[in-house]
Amino acid sequence: MSKYDSLWKWIQKNGDDKFSLTYAEIEKIAGLPIDHSFLTYKKELPEYGYKVGKISMKEQKIMFEKIVETENR
After folding, report:
1. What span, in angstroms and rounded, lies between the C-alpha atoms of 71 and 2?
2. Contact yes or no for 64/21 (Cβ under 8 A)
3. For residue 7, which of 21, 70, 17, 16 has the smallest C-alpha distance?
4. Does 71 map to a domain?
5. Which residue range(s) make up the domain with 45?
6. What is the pLDDT of residues 10-62, one digit of tens each?
């Protein structure tokens, strides 16, 4: 169990192909402050079908993108 499980589950339920969340929104969903450990924990997100895109320190936002499975033909 990860400290960001509630965030990953929220992202998975959201279902949008691409969206961003502010640090404040992430903290509210996760129930804990976002810190440097997020960079380590973000590696868990593909298990939920998403990846972290752009992280903007200036705007304090993180972009999330749905992982698209490609078919082998």
Report:
1. 31
2. yes
3. 21
4. no
5. 5-66
6. 999 999 999 999 999 999 999 999 998 999 999 999 999 999 999 999 999 99
Count Cα neighbours of 24 within 13 Å in the Cβ-side half-sphere.
Answer: 1
Q: How many domains does the chain have?
A: 1
* Helical (H) or strand (E) element with 18: strand 18-22
Would the CA dihedral through 7, 37, 66, 25 be positive or negative? positive
Token pair of 50, please? 């998403």
Strands of 61-66's sheet, edge to edge?
18-22, 61-66, 50-56
pLDDT for res 50: 97
**Residue 72 falls inside a structural domain:** no
Residue 16 lies in a domain: yes
